[in-house]
Specification:
The chain is mainly α. It has helices spanning about 1-10, 25-30, 35-60, 60-80, 90-120, 130-145, 150-160, 165-175, 180-200. It has 2 domains: about 1-120, Rna Polymerase Sigma Factor, Chain: A; about 120-204, Arc Repressor Mutant, subunit A. About 70% of the residues lie in helices and about 0% in strands.
Length: about 200
Amino acid sequence: MKKEQEAQSSIPHRQYPFQQLDDETLVRQLIAQPASKALREALYIRFAPLIYERALAIVRDQALAEDLTHDIILKIMLKIKSFSFRSSFRYWVWRVTYNHCINFINRKKKEITTDWEKAPHTFTETAYEPTGLHQEVQLYKLEQAIQQLSEQECAMLWMRYRDNIPVAEMAAIYQIGESAMKMRLKRLRDKLANIYKSIDDEQI
């Protein structure tokens, strides 16, 4: 935890004009004045720590999380005119962050899989304890199952089971009732469980 806090300190926390504005007003002014350095810096100062925290929770690497934070901020700046104001800007930033990180992870997994398939390799059971091997298989199967979910479904999983966001809060974000949110989560768990069961250990 201390290391994460130290890493977060690398994200600057200086004071800039416009920081007293609420999110919506800041965004509207930035859309109207996209060349304003002060507005861009105010947006960066306000959201970079939040983006970094989310990215770090996903990739578990401080340097990589910082790189992704800068990439995501740039993406937000480029796409900000597409923000419709139908939801809160913070939720929109959160969604862009998760989608970007998930896409990054999926690309990396494809690269690793491709390199593994191309490289000559052998497997020796003596390198693993039986329990360790079983856990490796289970983890790999779970990763394979999650890859078959959509980005939106992955984001929902992150929210509930990694970030521990309450169901009531998720329902407010998705603008549905709490019972409907619980049903969506149940269906998602069932879907993931069925995909997991369909993956044959012999094919791993």
